[in-house]
Amino acid sequence: MPIEARLHRAAGALTTLSNGRHVWNADISAALGSSDRAPDPHDLLDSALASCTALTLELYIRRKQLAVSDLQVSIEHVETRNAQGEVHYQLQRKLHIEGELSDDERQRLLEIADKCPIHRVLSGEISIESQLV
């Protein structure tokens, strides 16, 4: 099922998103003319990578029965512009893993983080086709 976004202009720019099973919101900051009542689209993109990484690692941790007591993933994005004004978007991911793990197991978890599906999408070439309906 596709993700659908419905803009509520009377609420600034609050947008309701749905995949048919779940509903969540997005918004823009007050500085841009809304009420900042939900994460902005950049936060949603960053959270997709953070959650996908955590869930991918959790599946691996379960399968290998690793002694992990806590797992946290943080994503920070940095935007820069080159001389032509093109935006370069860099995501910085930090993994905090607690538990009785060897250095080799920790290194393997770092490798597994790169295998999360959203990481693969964001690291590859993306094309977007748009049409009016």
From TrEMBL:
A Pfam family matched in the record: OsmC
Classification via InterPro entries: KH_dom-like_a/b (IPR015946), OsmC/Ohr_fam (IPR003718), OsmC/Ohrsf (IPR036102)
Organism: Chitinimonas taiwanensis DSM 18899
UniProt protein name: Putative redox protein
Taxonomy of the source species: Bacteria, Pseudomonadati, Pseudomonadota, Betaproteobacteria, Neisseriales
